[in-house]
Amino acid sequence: MPQAQALQRLQQHASYGVRLSEQTATRVAELLANVDQQPHSYQSLRVIESLLVMADDAQAQRLSVAPYVMTALTSNSDTHKKIQLAKQYVEQHYAQAIKITDLCHQLHLSESSAYRLFEKHYGMSFSEHLKQFRIGKACELLASSALPIALIAERTGFGNLSNFNRQFKTLKTMTPREFRQRFQAVSG
């Protein structure tokens, strides 16, 4: 069934984030407008139709080169507590130079245990997670402010503008300037 294959491709691409074409985004918005006021069976049909429209969008673009992966944890596990502490530490210190040893000291873990924790929970290394978090914060600032790109790089923990530009382009497949221009074009 070709529709099932298209939906499977959409699901795989969704873990990277997907930017739909303007035409598809408009069509999906039309399909889902006021859907919550319809009978349940009609709502289900509209959602399925919307998914099929998104799956058929040949102009859809991935937003990231790395997929977002997160494993489920029970909220009372020791691992969950460590992940929460690590998350808080990154959120509070991302603008500074952070080393895995700093995090290990906070979590009372060995480096190898910290590496395993990040690989298992996030599906990536600590440094990759930190880079993606910083780039995400940079995207927020690019979209919500007129701050110079060099200042955004500094505020998000990148001490070197060319390194920031290179890391940003690798992760987002566009430069920070292009990201800002596209975001302003869509929201403006």
UniProtKB/TrEMBL annotation:
Pfam families: HTH_18. One of its GO terms (molecular function) is sequence-specific DNA binding. The keyword DNA-binding applies. Gene3D superfamilies: Homeodomain-like. Residues 84-182 form the HTH araC/xylS-type domain. The keyword Transcription regulation applies. Keywords: DNA-binding, Transcription, Transcription regulation. PANTHER family: ARAC-FAMILY TRANSCRIPTIONAL REGULATOR (PTHR43280), TRANSCRIPTIONAL REGULATOR MTLR (PTHR43280:SF27). This is AraC family transcriptional regulator. It comes from Vibrio cholerae. The gene is btr_1.
